[in-house]
Design a protein that fits this description.
9 helices; alpha/beta; DNA polymerase, domain 1; 2 domains; Rossmann fold
Length: 229
């Protein structure tokens, strides 16, 4: 195994990497069981599309509004739109489940001396609620939001913001994302990247090339020479 060396900070995407975005629909009993997967997938797809399109249009709104707009599109598309269901799902999105391995991995990295941080499109209030709900406050040194720069990943300004806030060079960061587009963009920016390919995605045909591909963050500590997570 080729370990990553000279790393000072471990930076994580939030949604899909630290937090399971499917857990909102999974915990909502008001959604017909046969529509839960479709709702999760379409909601996520539209959420991402709206971040990219708004960035191209220079029409930024925060991720909470984007998430709500994407949910409105999804509920309407599936024919299950009601104000109560919308409110319930948005509330659940604030307390998404963390993936099971996450606390142990963050603890191992902190004990090994790495700075740990989130870098996400999520609005600050959303991220803070999710971190608190998952009990991760003491395991993260920083929670960084694209909201600070008014544009979404994969714009380089988002990755530059992380460098400025953490006081490190790009090649001193190990960046982890389950989103292939994010992993490739961070690599192209100059970060060292571990693509946590939880969902069995194919490699993107985009600039950049992640240093490692794993299926779970549980594999990360060994790549960094840290104690097992």
């Amino acid at each position: 195994m080729n370990q990553l060396t000279a790393i000072r900070a471990c930076v994580f995407d939030a949604y899909g990497t630290i937090f399971d975005f499917a857990s909102a629909a999974a915990r909502c009993e008001d959604i017909p069981e046969d529509k839960r997967a479709a709702l999760t997938n379409l909601w996520r797809d539209k959420q991402l599309q709206y971040t990219w399109l708004r960035s191209l249009q220079s029409r930024y709104v925060d991720f909470w509004q984007v998430t709500g707009d994407a949910l409105d599109f999804t509920l309407d598309s599936l024919g299950i739109a009601t104000p109560a269901l919308r409110e319930r799902l948005m509330d659940l999105y604030l307390t998404l489940n963390a993936f099971p391995e996450v606390p142990g991995v963050l603890r191992a990295l902190r004990q090994a001396g790495f700075v740990t941080a989130i870098l996400s499109n999520g609005a600050p209030a959303m991220l803070n609620a999710a971190v608190r709900g998952a009990g991760l406050e003491d395991l993260l040194d920083a929670v960084l939001s694209a909201d600070a720069v008014g544009v979404y990943k994969t714009h380089p300004r988002v990755y530059e913001y992380a460098l400025a806030q953490l006081g490190v060079r790009a090649d001193q960061i190990s960046f982890q994302s389950s989103n292939a587009w994010d992993a490739f963009a961070a690599s192209d920016f100059g970060m060292r990247v571990v693509w946590c390919n939880r969902y069995g995605q194919r490699r993107e045909r985009l600039p950049g090339s992640p240093d490692h591909e794993v299926r779970s963050l549980a594999e990360l500590p060994a790549l960094l020479g840290a104690a097992g997570g």
